[in-house]
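[Automated response] Your request has been received and processed.

Submitted sequence:
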Amino acid sequence: MVRCHTAGGRLHRRAGQNEAVSAIAVRLRGLPLPARWAIVGATSAGVIGAIVGLVIGLRVYAPTAPFAVVELGLPAAIVGGALGLAAGVIVTVGRRIKRDGTRPG
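Generated structure:
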């Protein structure tokens, strides 16, 4: 729990800080860049795909909306993870080229 002192010496929790989110951020920082970007890409694209699937499913036929969530969310997560991984690899290689002044290989 993140705490800070007030003028009266009492401890209180800072607004907008969450232990679970902080723990996730710490774990992500420990991963290599391509893995981090793959996780972020898969999560964000998956959530967007699931929301779109829910909206489409509710508009077309409400009883099957959960299936539309999976049908759009899962492929979106896979594509988002692959694009995030590719972008992370490109950035990593670019940083190594810039740092070393040579091309890999």
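Summary generated for your ticket: The chain has three helices and two strands. The chain has a mean pLDDT of 87.
If you did not submit this request, please reply to this message.
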